[in-house]
Amino acid sequence: MRIITAPAAMQGLAAHWQREGTRVGLVPTMGCLHAGHLSLVTRARSLVGQRGIVVVSIYVNPTQFAPTEDFARYPRTRARDARLCRTAGVDAIFAPRDRQMYPKYGTGAFSTFVVEDSLARGMEGAARPTHFRGVTTVVAKLFNLVRPAIAVFGAKDFQQAAVVRRMARDLNFPIRIVVAPICREPDGLALSSRNRYLSPAERAQAVALIQAIRQARQTVRRAARPVLANRLKSELTWLIETRPAARVDYLEFFDPRTLRPVTTVRRGAHLALAAYVGRTRLIDNGRL
Ligand code: AMP
Question: Does residue 34 carry a catalytic annotation?
């Protein structure tokens, strides 16, 4: 397994693979890898085949964090990540440094951003106004550096996958965007690198997110007619906030194809939510 840090070296290797006609699958991550990330690696491998190349990028992208967020303390576990990737059969890790990805960032020397201007507006985009601009910018850079035929994202970040797919279509990246299902703990908590911030008491309360999704699913499936979104939002907020450490940031019902909010909720609608458990912000989503 190769570990590449220089963007120019990555781009050179990608050009070589392209000349050879090798299919490349990319799994973009911020590292601190867990079974959710590894499921994306497995999916990428099945899509590019044994003769193809699977690249995992590991980069905690500063431009998708607001100044108040956890960029500095985001867990970085490079040696462990490399071991996990090697065991999972990854061919190459691309782990660039900030000064290589954003030379002289903050001095005005880096000044081009990619903005998706529709799907990125609600939910995570409303709660974290500069987040998706950072995501689409870094993903566009990764696409140009790695030149994959396929890129695999997780449904854990449902809106992110939709935004990236739209960007790839709108900007003519010749890349198939694949979205893999959410991997969960046995009690239903979605795996996330941020789960390691949780104290044992908070970890027990974090199950409230999946419980809210299950409760919404049950309500919608049992109801004789569509359920009012606002009513369901208050019920679920109450359910989550009965846990002393939990506070809802947003909760949204929407059409999974357009991401447009719905005012009445029926089977097939999608629920996405963000909640703080202590100081840790968690997100989850599911089809109802
Ligand atoms: P991150 O390292 O959190 O930026 O995530 C990198 C990729 O892994 C994204 O496409 C995520 O959606 C995906 N991912 C993170 N957690 C999970 C999970 N529990 N199940 C499936 N995919 C995940």
Answer: no
Q: Are strands 280-287 and 264-265 parallel, antiparallel or unpaired?
A: unpaired
**Are 124 and 252 found together in one domain?**
no
Residue at 185 is within a domain: no
Domain boundary residue, one of 147, 180, 213: 180
| Rounded Cα gap, residues 144 and 252, in angstroms | 33
**Ligand 1 mean position, distance from CA 24 (Å):** 19
Q: Could you read off the pLDDT of 211-221 as tens digits, one per residue? A: 999 999 999 99
Count of domains observed in the chain: 2
Q: What predicted TM-score, i.e. pTM, was given to this entire model?
A: 0.97
**Taking 90 as the threshold, does the pLDDT of residue 71 lie above it?**
yes
165/207 same-domain check: no
Residue range of the domain that includes 228:
193-287
182 lines ligand 1 (CB under 6 A): yes
Q: How far apart are CA 186 and CA 200, in angstroms?
A: 16
* Structure-block tokens of residue 214: 């299950």
Confidence band for 108, pLDDT divided at 50, 70 and 90 = confident
Which residue matches tokens 């090798």? 22
Overall average pLDDT of the 45-56 stretch: 98
pLDDT value at residue 105: 75
Residue 250 CA, ligand 1 centroid: distance in Å: 20
